[in-house]
Amino acid sequence: MELANSELVTYLLLPLFIFVARIMDVSLGTLRIIFVTKGMKRVAPLVGFFEVLIWLLAISRIMQDLDNWVCYVAYAAGFASGNFVGMLLEERLAIGHEMIRVITRKDATNLIAELSDRGYGFTSVKAQGLEGEVAVIYIIARRSMITEVLDLINLYNPRALYTVEAIKYVNKQIFHKSEEERQRWWQMSHMKKQEPRIILK
Asked: What is the pTM of this model?
């Protein structure tokens, strides 16, 4: 009975502990890097403390049983899974701001008016492209609102070229609409998608 319990701990419970611990510390490490790049000086050190603490617990258990190959597999699997979980958490948190650069040959008056009405920070300039004059629009928005801005672009200028870039720091609050107004627009925009539209080139 004692042997069975010992094998249960050695080949199941201990590797499981190491696997979970690695997921936690790698996930925290992913978030810490994001917090550092976003300039969050108070949060990043705190996350780093728990990241290293959990890692020490995991590595110390492996050092106590170096002949247990299952622990090595669990360590590697936990590291791989932790990267995946960390990226999922980062997407859910959607921390910081991003800049969307839009280049379109079609008249962007309606798109610009809609962006202005919804309070997005943007700058519009005229430029010369390979095939003639184009409009270039720079839009700054919180990451949680990127999908909404892209929906606006696809609604008014579906053939536009756009890129999305991360921004480390923004010195002003760009979006001033309330959450209720934003949700109301979000529902209306999805209702419009279900209706047939004629797009003029």
From this structure: 0.63
